[in-house]
Predict the 3D structure of the following.
Amino acid sequence: MSDEQSRKRPAGGDDPTGPAGWSPKDSDGPRKPGRARRPRRTGWRRLVPTWRMVLGGFLLVVLLVAGALIAGYMLVQIPPANKAAVAESNVFLYADGSQLTRSGEVNRESVPLSRVPKDVQHAVLAAEDRDFYSESAVNPEAMVRAAWNTATGKGKQSGSTITQQYVKNYYLGQEQTVTRKVKEFFIAIKLDREQSKDEILEGYLNTSYFGRNAYGIQAAAQAYYAKDSDKLTVAEGAYLATLLNAPSAYDVGAHPENKPRATGRWNYVLDGMVKKKWLTKAQRDALKFPAPGKSRARQGMNGQRGYLVEAVKDYLTDNKIIDEQTFARGGYRITTTIERKKQDAFTGAVQKQLMDELSDERKVDQYVRAGGASIDPKTGRVVALYGGIDYTKQYVNNATRRDYQVGSTFKPFVFTSAVQNDATTQNGRPITPTTVYDGTNRRQVRGPGGPVGYAPANEDDYSNPRITVTKATDLSVNAVYAQMAQDVGPAKVKATAVALGIPERTPDLTATPSIALGVATASVLDMTQAYATLANHGRHGTYTLVDKVTKGGENIQLPGKDPAQAVPREAADTTTAILQSVVDNGTGSAAQAAGRPAAGKTGTAEEDKAAWFAGYTPDLATVVAVMGQDSETGDQKSLYGAAGLPRVNGGGFPAEIWAAYTSDALEGTSTKDFDLSTSGGEVPPLEPPSPSAPPTSSAPPAPTTPPVPTPPSSAPPFPPTGPPTRPGPPTDFPTGPIFTFFPQEPKDGGGRGGGREMDGGGSLLDDY
């Protein structure tokens, strides 16, 4: 036996060595009586944590996580919406509610939840988050499950709730980073405390991407089914909900091969609705897959759309309804007064009557521009607007520009002012349709103190020293109307024009006798407004291009129209009567092709740079202008030789466009006659003028009745039988009760569709 084996363990346990394997360093002191000794952990057992260590570690992790959550919640704030999320289109609608176009790069129009049917809301929830209304803002279990499935190769999945997806769309971005996910988590929790479930769902529906460049449920409804969101059916809503998962994978319109996959997802959505009791089994079984329309090119600003958008924007900003910067941010839904049928009719009339007559081989034809506007005189609503051939090719809106002289279309305002103000000639005779004036070419305009230094020329040097106001209007005699403006008072003429609707700020709207010849450069729309006032018996209300404006479902207040009697009815109606004669017997005879009782006036600007026809029926006031402009330099150009004609005048293309448009625009409506309350008397007979007799006054005494002379063989055809045929020259001087020939005949104007008159003054005004 060894020494170690023979060693005896002392009684009482006071052996300093203690039990086998024990040493003093294994204890801080003597072992207490009755306490079991803990065996020493050896080998691999030393690496296994005890339950105390596990519990302590777990509690530490919990504390750390809780601390991190609290810190994250305190530190992460709800940021402002990102720019992409709030960017929207301005949506423009025709008067009937159909879409005209939308402006802005982002195809989005936010709508309130009330404009999304409940079935469509439920379809979205069935597709994306069926427990949305009962769950919290985040679902950790779903997030963990999605992360596990993604990590194990079962496909990239998302465990985000609708609240989290909305946060990503509206406040953050689409980048896949840990930082973004952490922010999304905390913002969703905060948002859930600050907003209701309905508000969050509304935001989600307005920010989600549905494919086809459509952001939000309203844009998606238009892109796939060409309807507003509140018109969507259950089946259509389920299909749009399908797209939220992966738009390009389920768009069967753009990719027919996606049909099986899209149908499967659509069925999944409907089955979810049944499971949640949002849809009965019978209702679900009755539904058929709603094939969406084919993907269409986005309606842009081409054609007339750009001109209409520009005009509407100017109307809203000029009237301080919406400021320009706010408008540019988008989100407005604008119902215009434009009627699709009439708009199409205007476009078609310009194309057929003018554009089809132009040739690329003639340089002057490249200068031709056209502008037009049409107003319902009873309401002041602009029902059609023609700005040019195509906004993407010609950016300037020819309907609203104010840089072309209006020519003789201004003359009716002079006569209206004369009747309104009970004006008289220089020798005291009342100015009426039958008042006789001296229409001698280059006659000096006379005031109370004698000549005023202004002697305008008549077209082709036409002279007639004894001519009634009616016939002078038929033939657009400058000498008569310059003298009439002086008789009435140029300042009064200007005031009448402004009252009728010509803006006071119109360039060259000066209170001088030259105002009568149309030196002012009012726009086509301005002139249409003024003529609409005449058509409405002198009652004027500011025109309107907009019926309704909303943003976010809220109505934007529009200014009242406040119609008022701008000029006495007798003044307006008497003007209408002499303008009817212009169409029946004068330079506007081409307008007869409309087949309606009509009143109108032709006009030609200096050097034939613009030709006008302004006219109206009892139901519609319309002005058409054909202009010349070099697209390279922007300079105004003469229209001599355009369309192969020597001249272009108001009785030609403009009157023909007017007639074609008016006929189509009023097709299917009853024909109405003018209901007029006029002043004036019968047209007195006149003697032939004497070539050597000098004019003595603006209203000579009535002569005896002469025989009508036989026209010289070189004179124009007598009498004219109707609108001139194309392309021959017009008959400048239709017959009437006071028509007389004179030794010096007018030159052949060579224009198209009626007599031509020199308006706008030009170099002739330099003598004034």
